[in-house]
Amino acid sequence: MTAGLLRRPSAPQVPARFRDLLAAEWIKLWSLRSTWGSLALILLSTVGLSVHATLATYADWARWSAEQRALLNPLWDAFPQQAQMFVVLAAGSVGAIAVGGEYATGLLRTTFAAVPARRAVTGAKIIVVAGVMTVLGLLGAATAFGVSQAILSARHAGMSVGEPGALRGILASGLLVPVCALAGMGFAALVRHTAPAIVAAAAALLLLPTAVDEDERWTALLRHAMPVPAWQRLIEISEPPPWITIAHPATISGAWTTYAAWAAISALVTVLAVHRRDP
Amino acid sequence: MGQVIELTALTKRYGRTTAVDDLTLTVRPGHVTGFLGPNGAGKSTTLRMILGLTTPTGGTATVDGVRFADRPRGLRYAGALLDAGDVHGGRSARAHLAALARSNGIAGARVEEVLREVGLAAAARRRIGGFSLGMRQRLGIAAALLGDPPVLLFDEPFNGLDPEGVRWVRGLFRRLAGEGRTVFVSSHLMSEMEHCADRLVVIGRGRLIAEQSLADLAARSTRTSVVVRTPDPAGLAAVLTAEGAAVRPEDDGSLAVTGLTAARVGDLAFAHRIPLHELTARTASLEEAFMELTAASVEYLAGEAR
Questions:
Q1: Is residue B47 part of a domain?
Q2: Which of A5, A107, A109 sits opposite B117 (nearest CB)?
Q3: Is residue B304 part of a domain?
Q4: A-interface mutation test, from B55, B103, B116, most A Cβ less than 10 A away
Q5: What is the average pLDDT value for chain B, to the nearest integer?
Q6: Residues B198, B228: one domain?
Q7: Could you read off the pLDDT of A150-169 as tens digits, one per residue?
Q8: C-alpha span between A99 and A122 (Å, rounded)
Q9: pTM for the whole thing?
C-alpha cells in the first residue's frame, strides 16, 4: 500500500463547523465558469444599460421643456426599467441554477452523503449565494448611480448621493438582486428542475406584476407585495404629479417589508423543501 | 477496528412497490462483502438508506450504531461511490473534491493524495464533463477515500472500467478490507465478485436470499452435471431417467444430465449399445449458482411475459 495514504480505519472526532460548509459552498460557486459569466453579465448590464439611458437624456436635454426637466427623477436613468428587468431575470436564474443544478446533476446525493446535515448545507448555500449577490448588486447599483449622475451633472440635472432618496435608490436597486436570487432558489427547491424554476421565477417576478394594478384595494395589496413594484416605489423620490391619482399608493416601509418577506420566505422554503424531500 | 453496518428489518416502499423488504443483516469489518442481486433487487435503495439519502419506510440502518442521517458530517465515517454521475460536469476534478473535503474539515493536501491514489492527478484540472465513465468511477472512488473512513460503500463500481481498472479496484478493495475496514460492494454480476469478495449477501426483490461466505455459496450450489451427445437422445434419456437421473435437452441437441457421474453415464450407454459422441463432466460455476439462487426473483426477464 502507499505509505500513509489510508491511515487508520477509525473515525476521529472532528468538530462539525458551519464555516467549513460556507467555505465548501464558496468553492462550489466559484469553480463554475457559468458563475463568472452570469455575474459579469449582471454587472455589465446594470451599468451599461444605465449609461445608455443616461446618454439618451443627456442628448435630448436641450429639447426638453422646463416642466419636463423639473419632473425628471435622476434615478430613472441610473436604474432604468430595462436594466432591472434583465437583472431580475439573471439573478433569479443564478439562484435557480445554484439549487436546481445540484438536483439535476445528482450532485446533491454526493453532497448529502458527505454532509448528512441537510439544513446546514442548504443554509450555507443560501448565505453564500445571497451574500455574493448582495455585494454584486450593491456594487452594480453604486457604479450605475455614480456614472449616470456624473453624466447628468454635465447638464446640471444629476443628484449627489447625499440628496434625499439617492441612497435608498441605490440600496433598493442593489438588494433587488439577492431578493430575486433567493426567489429563484426557492422555486428550484420546490420544482427540483432548473429550467421550470427559471420560468416560474420569471413569471412570478416579472410577469405577474404587470397583471395587477392599484385600482382595487386587494389588487393594490397584491401588487405591493411583489419585489419589482416594491423596487419601483423605492426609487421614486417625490410624490407623483397632481394629474396622476393612485387610489391605493404603496408606502416606503411597505416596500422594504416586501423585500424582507420575499427574502425570508424564499430562504425558509428552500431549506425546508430541500430537507424534507430525499434527493 | 473498522465498524459494522447493521440493517434491522429495513423496508422501503414506493406506493405499492416494495423496493426493500424486511432486510436484516450485518456487514462486518475486515472483509469485502459482495452485495449481489439482479437489476431492480433493491441494492441501490439499500445503500442509499444506509447513507441516510433515502428515508426508510420501516426498520433501521446504522453505521457504527448510529443512523447516518444523525451525523452532522459523513466522510470520516463512511465513504461511498453510489453513482459516478452524481457530480457537476462543469467543475474540475480537483474543485469537486476540494469542496467535499472542505465541507468535512479535511485538509486540502488529502485531495492531492486521493487524486494520485486513483490515478487522476494528471486530469485534476480538467472539467469532469469531459471524463469517460471509467474516469468518473475513479473520481467517485477518490471521493469515497477522502475522509479515510472505516466503512466504504460502492454501488456497481466496475461499470465502465477497463480490465486494468477492474484489477486495480479489486486490489484496492482487498487492501481496504485488509486494513480492517468494512467494504460493501454491490454488483449484479457474480463474475465481478468472484475475485474480490470473501463474503456475499444476495438479495432478490428486496428480500434477503443468502448471506454466507463465497466458499459456502460455491459448495452449496456446485452441482456437477454431465453433458452427453448421442445420435439417439430419446433412447439414452429413457435409460438415464430409469436410473434416477434428471435429463434436460440442451439447445444444441446435447443432453444435460444431473444425478449421475460421467463414468456411470458412459457405462450405461455402453451396456445399452447407445453410441456416444461426447461425454463431458461439467462443474457449475459460481455464476450459475448465483443464477439458480436468484432465478425466482428476477425482476426484469428478457423475452418472457410476466
A1: yes
A2: A5
A3: no
A4: B103
A5: 89
A6: no
A7: 999 888 888 888 888 899 99
A8: 9
A9: 0.85
